[in-house]
């Protein structure tokens, strides 16, 4: 299979590594920036292009779209026009997504949006503990995901990449990234109340913290904080159940649960090799690419759709509306 990686920044290079790990031998790369093309070509020995038309002349079978989020649908529509199967990184912009959904309905093309966290071994372990009813019915969770924005890409100026823009701001991106797996585990959300703000001196015009109260349709009452001000990278969740508690910590690579009868039982987690300047392992990303390839080959039914992704983004919209109005938003 010939695969074109569109965008050779941080995520694009990661996807090239994933595909090489999966023994994909025909990998092409496109990026309008000459420095990125040269780096990817020299580092991974792939053919690269600065002109998308020339890359498409190679007739790829699939595209991995790793551009900034506000360009995802542009390249998705190109892929649909050329009947090329495609994968997009995490979404944060709704623009043109409904059009892409409509085009996919009348096409045999596979279009798969990212849902990386569903593949993370910590999420899998939490799913397993809940599935075995080891802590009883879940009643609430407290979740925090945060990392200081300049540490996201320490090799470049944080003010000059897409997370510094209002529409594709870092917190805006992470909220739906997290909701994708939380909703899979706990079901639909009934109401949201939130406050977002810029509280730091970061030199960007974005909200740098989102605090959210989430009421789920099953009655769970939960809190979620996403920020880009934490000087230590946090991703932690505490799940309170009728019979026990789950405590998961991505930095500690640990999932442990407590019951009165057994006390704490800890499971250490391996999420794969961690590349230089990254904080999370490659494992979930490799599995996600493998799932995309299997979806294209019709070995499996694709696990996530743009219709689902759009619904997540509509929840983000209601979260922000709640913050702006100061009123709880009731979801359909």
Please describe what this structure looks like.
- This protein has 332 residues and is of the alpha/beta class.
- It has 2 domains: 2-113, Rossmann fold (3-Layer(aba) Sandwich); 118-269 and 304-330, Dihydrodipicolinate Reductase, domain 2, CATH 3.30.360.
- It has 9 helices and 15 strands.
- The strands form 2 sheets. Strands 14-13-12-11-7-10-9-8-15 form a 9-stranded mixed beta sheet. The protein has a 6-stranded parallel beta sheet with strand order 3-2-1-4-5-6, with helices on both faces.
- A hairpin with a 4-residue loop joins β12 (244-249) and β13 (254-259).
- The N and C termini lie far apart (41 Å).
Summarize the structure.
The protein is 33% helix and 26% strand.
Would you spell out the secondary-structure blueprint of this structure?
Blueprint: E1 2-6, H1 10-21, E2 26-30, H2 34-44, E3 47-49, H3 52-56, E4 62-65, H4 72-81, E5 85-88, H5 97-105, E6 111-113, H6 121-131, E7 138-146, H7 170-186, E8 189-197, E9 209-216, E10 221-227, E11 234-241, E12 244-249, E13 254-259, E14 263-268, H8 283-296, H9 306-325, E15 329-330
Parallel strand pairs: 1-2, 1-4, 2-3, 4-5, 5-6, 7-10
Antiparallel strand pairs: 7-11, 8-9, 8-15, 9-10, 11-12, 12-13, 13-14
Helix pairs in contact: 1-8, 4-5, 7-9
